[in-house]
């Protein structure tokens, strides 16, 4: 089946190592549900600006971790095509804590606080305003990275593929419906990753992402799951702290 022409420019944002795999995945989607891609191509969806496959800028051979979230942010400025990277966020810090855009992006806020707990800069039971003041001051003085773009670069340097279970958000379509349609695509991607000499670890955030555990393509991949970061309890997740702590993602280099 032919991939709709409207979707082809989006493939250009992916690393060339992914191009045949992504095309194979789209053909698998079309075989499973022939009406889906033509309908999507003619619809309004997020992310915009051909960023549908932006997550695949990470070359296939460099993937060490596959971080799977639920879906794009439901706002055009925020949806970047990269899992939980909110395009509305630039600066990470304010004079008294995290920046206002970070605090509005609940998942990102809780992820950063989890990193600060893992590094010993915050106590797990005290991550509020007063505790954040000295942390932010030290960060702004040069002790930490300053922007979300730098955080995304750090994750890429550590081998992360930042993927969503559904690659699109549509306000008039339940997220679970789009996620189901993208499942054959994800199976193709996961099969390619499982075939690598160094198999990456899957990090599954939230109930939609955890459904991937049932797929045969993930059976041979190491996996770790957690509640979605929009839950406050994510900050205290021991498994996430142990995984991300040694990476020191927020430290200035």
Short summary:
The chain has helices spanning 19-32, 36-41, 100-104, 106-118, 129-143, 148-157, 175-181, 183-194, 207-210, 238-244, and strands at residues 65-69, 160-164, 201-205, 223-226. By secondary structure, the chain is an alpha/beta fold.
Biggest β-sheet description: 4 strands, parallel
Query: Could you give the order of strands across the largest sheet?
Result: 2-1-3-4
Number of DSSP strand runs: 4
CATH architecture of the largest domain: 3-Layer(aba) Sandwich
User: What would the average pLDDT be, to the nearest integer?
Assistant: 95
> Which class of secondary structure composition applies to the elements?
alpha/beta
Give the fraction of residues assigned to helices.
25-40%
- The number of distinct structural domains comes to 2
The CATH superfamily of the largest domain is identified as Uracil-DNA glycosylase-like domain
Task: List the helices and strands in order.
Answer: HHEHHHHEHHEHEH
Radius of gyration: 18 Å
- Our count of helices gives 10
Gross geometry: globular
Give the termini distance in whole angstroms: 48 Å
Strand content: 5-15%
CATH topology of the largest domain: Uracil-DNA Glycosylase, subunit E
CATH class of the largest domain: Alpha Beta
SSE order and pairing:
Blueprint: H1 19-32, H2 36-41, E1 65-69, H3 100-104, H4 106-118, H5 129-143, H6 148-157, E2 160-164, H7 175-181, H8 183-194, E3 201-205, H9 207-210, E4 223-226, H10 238-244
Parallel strand pairs: 1-2, 1-3, 3-4
């Amino acid at each position: 089946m032919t991939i709709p022409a409207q979707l082809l420019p989006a493939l250009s944002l992916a690393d060339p190592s992914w191009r045949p795999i992504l095309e194979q995945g789209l053909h698998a989607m079309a075989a499973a549900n022939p009406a889906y891609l033509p309908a999507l191509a003619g619809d309004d969806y997020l992310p915009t600006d051909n960023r549908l496959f932006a997550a695949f800028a990470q070359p296939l051979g460099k993937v060490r971790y596959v971080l799977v979230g639920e879906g794009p942010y439901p706002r055009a400025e925020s949806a970047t095509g990269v899992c939980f990277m909110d395009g509305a966020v630039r600066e990470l810090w304010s004079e008294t804590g995290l920046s206002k855009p970070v605090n509005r992006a609940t998942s990102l806020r809780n992820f950063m606080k989890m990193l600060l707990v893992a590094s010993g800069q915050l106590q797990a039971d005290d991550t509020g305003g007063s505790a954040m003041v000295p942390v932010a001051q030290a960060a702004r003085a040069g002790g930490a990275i300053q922007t979300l773009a730098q955080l995304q670069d750090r994750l890429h340097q550590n081998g992360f593929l930042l993927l969503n279970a559904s690659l699109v958000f549509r306000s008039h379509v339940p997220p679970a419906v789009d996620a189901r349609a993208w499942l054959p695509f994800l199976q193709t991607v996961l099969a390619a990753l499982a075939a690598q000499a160094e198999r990456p670890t899957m990090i599954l955030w939230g109930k939609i992402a955890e459904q991937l555990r049932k797929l045969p393509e993930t059976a041979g991949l190491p996996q770790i799951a957690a509640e979605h970061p929009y839950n406050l309890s994510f900050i205290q997740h021991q498994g996430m702290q142990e995984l991300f702590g040694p990476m020191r993602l927020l430290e200035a280099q």
